[in-house]
Amino acid sequence: MWNHPEPHPGAWLNERFLKPLGLTASDLARGCRMPRSRVSDLLAGKRGISADTAQRLGAFFRMDPEVWMALQAAWDLDQTPTDPEIAPLDPPGFLLGPAGATPLPPRRRPSPPALHLPQGPSGPAEREQRRVRRHEEVCYPDGTRALISVPR
Q1: Distance CA 70, CA 54 (A)
Q2: Distance (Å, whole) CA 34 – CA 30
Q3: Fewest Cβ atoms closer than 10 Å to its Cβ: which of 39, 60, 78, 143?
Q4: pLDDT per residue over 24-71, tens digit each?
Q5: Rounded Cα distance, 63 and 56, in Å
Q6: CB 32: neighbour CB atoms within 10 A?
Q7: Which CATH number characterizes residue 21's domain?
Q8: How many structural domains comprise the chain?
Q9: φ and ψ at 26, to 5 degrees?
Q10: Which residues pair with 97 in a beta bridge?
Q11: Is the pTM of this model over 0.70?
């Protein structure tokens, strides 16, 4: 489990791109056609990466702008504490996930076979007759199979 704090996107930009390439904030501002104050605020951690800034950084460094937006989103989520009082939604009959709320199919239970109990006195002869029975296999519509005893 990752438990290190996320670096600010500006610090990441500085450490991974500007320093290795020997670029200054002014070089980046000129190359991305952004105000130098925006770049300075970003590198100082005073400003986040907007969609416009992500587009410009993506074009300048030949990267997808989504990479820059993902860095900003990761940092934003790391800086925001979760509220323990928010109770998670658990609607019955639905599975919640990235695809949305998906209804679960209903569970069908097969109806059990009718149980016929013998009526009348239960003497030793009747008990013996009940003990020796014939068995049949029953297959329910859902594929469940059961063995039931059938009187002679």
Answers
A1: 10
A2: 7
A3: 143
A4: 999 999 999 999 999 999 999 999 999 999 999 999 999 999 999 999
A5: 10
A6: 19
A7: 1.10.260.40
A8: 1
A9: -65, -40
A10: 100
A11: no
